[in-house]
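Researcher: I'd like a structural prediction for the single chain below. Treat it as a standalone chain; there are no partners to consider.
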Amino acid sequence: MKLRTIALALLLALSPAAAHRAVAQEASHPQPSQVRVGPHGEHLVGAQAGPVDIVTPHITDSHALELPFVGEVELPRWTPVRIGGVAIDLSPTKHVVMLLVAAVLCVLVLVPAARAHVRHTQQAGAPKGFANGIEAMVLYLRNEVILPNVGPHGNAYVPFALSLFFFILFANLLGLIPYGSTATGNISVTAMLAIITFVVVEISGMRTQGLGYLRTIFYIPPKEVPLPLKPVLFVIMSIVELIGKFTKPFALAIRLFANMTAGHVVLLALISLIFTFGSYFVAPVPIAMAVASSLLEIFVGFLQAYIFTLLSCVFIGLIREGGH
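Model: Treating it as a single chain, here is the predicted structure.
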C-alpha cells in the first residue's frame, strides 16, 4: 500500500501536465462515482464535491479489500447479531482479513522452522539456515525477556509471550507491503490484545497468590501507620490499586495503536507535500523522506512487538511477585 502510494505520487509529480489534463478530462466527463448529491438534492460534480480524503482510508478499517490486478473487492456483509437492543455486526473487514493473514503467516513460518530445527539437530547436531535465525530470536526472547521478567517457574508463559510477539510482528509488517494494511493501527485490535493480556495477568496472580490476590485490589496499610489514618489510606489506595489494574492494559493498547497509526500519517503527510507545492522539483525530497520513513517503520514494527511482549511479561511478573 505504501509503495504504491509513493509510486503514484512520483508519477504525478514528474508529469504535472499529464495530471492536469487527466483532471480536466475527468471534470468534463464525470464518472458516475464522481457525481455526489448535495444537502439540498443538487448534483455536485468534480471540484464542487469537495476535497477528496486520501488519509483516512489508509488508517481506518473498511468492508473492502484491495487486491492486485483486481482492484477493490467488497467483503461479504452478514446480518447483524442482536443481543437485546444492541445490533453487533460480525461481518469481516479489511483488518479482520489482515489478522487472519498474520495468523496464517505465523503458522507457515514458525511450524516449518520448528520442524527443520528438529531435523537439523538430529542430523547435524545444530540447526542451520532460517531455522537457526528463528531459534536465535526465540532463545533471546525466552532467556532475556520472558523468564527474567515473569519470574520463577516462568516457562509456562513462554508460549503465550512468543505468540504475542510473532503475531503482533506479522500484523505490523503487513502494512508495509503493497495492498496490505496494518491491523494493529486499529484501536479495537490493540484493545483486544490488551484485554487478553489483562486476563492472563489476573489469572496468573490468582493462581500464584491464592487469597493473597485480594491484596492487589485492597490496600492493607502497614503497622507503622497510625490507626486513624488506616481507614483513609485503605479507601484511597484501594481505589488507586483498582484503577492501576486497568491503566496497564489501556497503556498497552494506546501505545501500539498510536505508534502504528503515526507511521501512516507521517508517510501520507510527506507525500502530500508534492501535491501541495505542485512542482516536480520538490518531489525528490518528500519521496526520499517517505522511503526513509518506510524503512524506519520496519524497525518500529519489530520494536513495538518487542515492547508489547516485554511489558506483558513485566505485568505478569509484578503480580506473581507476592506469591514467591
